[in-house]
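Sorry, I am new here, but would you mind making up a protein's amino acid sequence and the tokens describing how it folds?
***
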Amino acid sequence: MAVLAAAVVVVVVVGVVVVAPAPVAGELARVEHPTKEDGSLTVLAVGDWGRKGQYNQTLVATQMGVIGEKLGADFILSTGDNFYNDGLTGDNDTASFQESFTHPPPRR
């Protein structure tokens, strides 16, 4: 029984170490955004928005930009599910970050 209890403890400890998030080494940039006169905030939320221009994603991105402009979106919130197959190559993955978030559309 003691061997089984020890094995369970080892499995739990290893599980916690493997699943625990790694510490973040940087800070998020502070963004100043002017307040609207009526105090409102418009957010365009998107999820599972595709990858690397496949599956007509250029058309989807264009429409996201059109809707963002029409709504006067202050921010775009991504719900995730964006990095497919092999995931990211690192925290400076230009294909997944710069190309996705700095070239219009969908950024307004």
